[in-house]
Amino acid sequence: SDVKTRMHKGDIIIFDDKDRQTILKKLKSEKKNNNFTLMIKMLLYNGLRPSDIVNITIDNVDLKKMVMKYYSTKVGQWYTCPLHSELKPQLRKQIKAATSNKLFSYENISNMGKAFRRFMKDIGLDNKGYDLRTFRKDFISRCQEAGVPVVAASKLAGHSNLTTTMEYYTKLSPEYFRFELNKLE
Questions:
Q1: How far apart are CA 79 and CA 176, in angstroms?
Q2: Which of 2, 99, 163, 177 has its CA 20 to 30 A from that of 183?
Q3: With contact defined as beta carbons under 8 Å apart, do 134 and 19 qualify?
Q4: Burial class (CB in 10 A: 0-12, 13-18, 19+), 154
């Protein structure tokens, strides 16, 4: 009971710009269904855990205010988060086509992961080590590079500790550091 476990701190894997663009382009060109497209975009533009989005209900999505309530099973509490404007068309379409109150038709995270791995194999990105958690790390890292304050990025991701956000979820590019360095006169 005196031993505390800590997260393993390995290399933080995020999408490179080319791969992120490939994923978005292939969602359109491969004519992926709205359920899958919304899942990918929700992970990409909100930085939430797959376990946070798998059980979202339509009742908890407010398209007028562009906010969503979700229950985080990891921390055991409810959150309200803003929705990126890029999600609105897919959300509207998904809500209109829904046959139940559940936003996604995935039974569990495992099914989401299988669909993602199949897609990555189909588009030739299956050898890069990407998984559903990559979206969360990518979101937080992109927030940081875009100048979003770390406090805001941390809260958007549902973290209560800034250290977690910085140590385990942020990977800044060499280009970002070069840009920052060149601010010096």
A1: 31
A2: 163
A3: no
A4: buried
Predicted confidence band at 58 (pLDDT cuts at 50, 70, 90)?
A: very high
Task: Please give the Cα distance from 109 to 48 (Å, whole number).
Answer: 13
Q: Give the tens place of pLDDT for each residue, 98-115.
A: 999 999 999 999 999 999
DSSP annotation of 103: S
User: Distances from the Cα of 134 to the Cαs of 57, 103, 175, in angstroms?
Assistant: 24, 22, 20
Distance CA 66, CA 73 (A): 22
Written as six digits, the tokens of 122 are 């189909």
Confidence of residue 30 (pLDDT cuts 50, 70, 90): confident
Amino acid (1-letter code) at residue 25: K
pLDDT for position 90 = 93
Q: In what order do the strands lie in the sheet with 67-72?
A: 61-62, 67-72, 77-82
Query: What would the two tokens of residue 143 be?
Result: 């927030």
In whole angstroms, what is the distance from residue 35 CA to residue 103 CA? 8
